[in-house]
Amino acid sequence: MLDTLNPFVHTPVVQSRLPEVDFDRLQFGRTFSDHMFSLEFKDGAWQQGRIEPYGPFSMSPASMVFHYGQAIFEGMKAYRQTDGTVSLFRPGANIARFNRSAERMSMPAVPEALFFDALTALLRVDEAWVPSREDSSLYIRPFMIATDPFIGVRPSETYVFAIFTCPVNAYYTEPVRVKVETHFTRACPGGTGAAKAAGNYAASYLPAFQAQQQGYHQLLWTDATEHAYVEESGTMNAMFVIDGVLTTPVLSDSILAGITRESVLLLARDLGIPTEERRVSIAELERGIERGTVTEAFGAGTAATIAPMATISFGDKDLALPPVSEWKIAPRLSVELDALRRGRIEDRFGWNIPV
User: Fold this and answer.
1) In the chain, is it the N or the C terminus that has fewer CB atoms within a 10 Å radius of its CB?
2) CA gyration radius for the chain?
3) What is the pTM of this model?
């Protein structure tokens, strides 16, 4: 059926699963909302979008995504506001990055208006799934996969664009231990590191697992050429406070341009906190922690927002950061950003888009 609030075909669930959910004990990425959005690309055009019960796809085993890896995704969130309404946080930035990823992976762009309408229509249907707890939000996963049933090395001619959502609580509950990775590479110049492509993540599993076996939560990725400069922190952008300056690696084609990264930098500048985007060497970081000039280190990303680092491992040497209780910048940014996203303070950047 069609209605004025939802321009897509809408097939509602017979019975919502919402009463079964314990919002106080959510496991990140395991609980999914009632509905999903899906849209096919074929014959050179996007077809009719559908909002339907969350469930499996039916696909050919020869679908090209399984063999040649044409798959991209985004991570974004919606927040319950203090007045009870729901807002998307910076959806335009995520839509733009999704289409940059699509271009890099030879996939069709999703028109921005269509993408936004799909997001808002889906959230209106499942608005009750947006949690109200202070550390909770609705995580939103748009993605696109190649579906052409063809065994041949070329871009697919058909695709599925889909969106599903899941209520989540905090990603990390304590500061993390990270290890500097100097053998494996997350991305290389000229590769797909600046795209949110599925294969980028699959390639990180082995080194991440090895680090976890050694007692670390995540890796600090280094450049592919020399393994001498910081690039990313696990699946997040890396940020450091060096001599009182919020410092982060300058973007390149091997670093993903994080929406949270950009938000943190813009917010810091608005608050009068000095910032710098430049190359950050492993040697500088190690020396700075030892000498006390590196006072804070954290990852910035959609899932965790700001994830403080307790320890960074350089080879066989673990160096501890000062206790988070002594930090000045990251906690201030975290509190300010959370208050802004939840409508507790004025949205002076225009980042919250009501659903």
Assistant:
1) N
2) 21
3) 0.96
Q: In the CATH hierarchy, which fold is given to the domain comprising 9-168?
A: D-amino Acid Aminotransferase; Chain A, domain 1 (3.30.470)
Phi (first) and psi of residue 99, to 5 degrees: -75, -25
Return the number of other C-beta atoms located less than 10 Å from residue 250's C-beta.
12
Q: What is the pLDDT of residue 1?
A: 36
- CA–CA dist 121, 115 (Å, integer): 10
Model confidence at 5: pLDDT above 60: no
Cβ 150 vs Cβ 156: under 8 Å: yes
For residue 164, the one-letter residue type is F
Task: Please give the pLDDT value at position 173.
Answer: 83
pLDDT tens per residue, range 294-314 = 999 999 999 989 999 999 999
Picking from 257, 256, 260, the residue whose alpha carbon sits closest to that of residue 268 is 260
Q: State how far the Cα of 53 lies from the Cα of 21, in Å rounded to an integer.
A: 17
Residue 226 tokens read as: 């020399």
Nearest to residue 101, comparing CAs of 77, 129, 73?
Answer: 73
Residue type, position 206, single letter = L
* Model confidence pLDDT, tens digit, residues 198-252: 999 999 999 999 999 999 999 999 999 999 999 999 999 999 999 999 999 999 9
Classify domain 176-341 by CATH architecture. Alpha-Beta Barrel (3.20)
Record the tokens describing residue 132, joined without a space: 């109200």
Beta-strand relationship, 176-181 and 305-314: parallel
d(CA 282, CA 298): 15
Question: Residue 41 phi/psi, 5° resolution?
Answer: -115, 120
Residue 306 has a CB neighbour count (10 Å cut-off) of 20
Give one DSSP letter per residue of 123-179, joined into a string: HHHTGGGS--STT-EEEEEEEEEE--B--SSS--S-EEEEEEEEEE--S-SS-EEEE
Q: Is 106 exposed, middle or buried (CB count within 10 Å of its CB: 0-12, 13-18, 19+)? A: exposed
The C-alpha atoms of residue 13 and residue 34 are separated, in whole angstroms, by 7
DSSP state of 321: P
